[in-house]
Amino acid sequence: MVVDDEPYIQELYKAMLPIAGHTIVDSAYNGQEAVSRYEGLESKPDIILMDHRMPVKSGLEATREIVARDPGARVLVISADASVQSRCSMAGAVGFLEKPFTMEVLFKTIELAIRAPTLHARP
Known about the structure:
Helices cover 41% and strands 14% of the residues. The chain is of the alpha/beta class. The protein has one domain: 3-Layer(aba) Sandwich (Rossmann fold). The protein is globular, with a radius of gyration of 13 Å.
């Protein structure tokens, strides 16, 4: 699942993630929409790529809410602000990626985040 308020970033992910064998199951343009759309997914994604700074609800707030409702959720927070990394971890994110990054780094970080332990594994 991809959550980012910039349409061109969403399009970039849609073009690049399939190269590494990933399928985008859903997307959202702000944190509130992310929480709502995640709750509505019958089959939960392996990972959520979550932008940090977004309107309506930040990625940090959305991460906190998603993980509180599904402790098995894996959220990878992406931000240009490295100072929020520890807060993202405390909110339940399994990984953090600082912008800017290469696609190679993105793919490696996604793989690490997918394998990272969560608060509670999904049944």
